[in-house]
Amino acid sequence: MAQNAKINISNKITPFLKKYGVIIVLFFLLFPYLYKYILKFKNKIEQATDEAKKDRNTAENATGNPAIIKQKVEQVKKKYPNLNQKTINQINTNALKIATAFGTNVDDNHQIGNFEFFNVKAWTEDEETAIRLLKQHLGTFPILEDFYYTTATRSRNLKADVLKYLSKEQSQELSNFYKKRNYFWL
């Protein structure tokens, strides 16, 4: 009786495989390529969207319009509802001070190309002030980074600017300062 069941199953599977076997094999051969193509297309769309957001943020910040910047501060505040108003304002103020210390703040719209001709403060960096302010933000560094990107600069990354404008010794000192307190921001 068990042999009859096996024969019946094989009799049912054989015609199915004869009819759809080529399609099944093609599916398993082509699926990885199709999946890769779909992911590539999805990533391309996401990158274009991120680039458009960055360009829009840069254009809005380039005007230095206080109303737009205030609106952006409110948008960032909504991302962190657990923080009180005083802490948020302090982080925003420090993000603006760090941008000024690095010479990347949005209030200075005298840039021609990549060089600031009329803003003498932007010719050099105030590393000590920047390091002092960065050390104040142990647990709130990602929020500071968000304010720096969104409101204080023309879509600049704080980590990249720290590595660019501070010497290797200073950035290593700052990194060690965070690591001693179990934060790995840099």
* Tally of strands: 2
Order of strands across the biggest sheet? 1-2
Level of helix content? over 70%
How many helix segments? Answer: 7
Strand content: under 5%
Give unreliable regions as ranges: none
Number of domains: 2
Please, what is the average pLDDT?
Answer: 83
Distance between termini?
Answer: 71 Å
Q: Judging from the principal axes of the Cα atoms, what is the shape?
A: elongated
Explain this structure.
73% of the residues lie in helices and 2% in strands. It is mainly alpha-helical and 186 residues long. A hairpin with a 2-residue loop joins strand 1 and strand 2. The model has no long low-confidence stretch (mean pLDDT 83).
List the helices and strands and how they pair.
Layout: H1 2-63, H2 66-79, H3 85-102, E1 111-112, E2 115-116, H4 127-135, H5 141-152, H6 158-165, H7 168-180
Antiparallel strand pairs: 1-2
Coiled coil: 38-65
Transmembrane segments: 20-39
Keywords: Coiled coil, Membrane, Transmembrane, Transmembrane helix
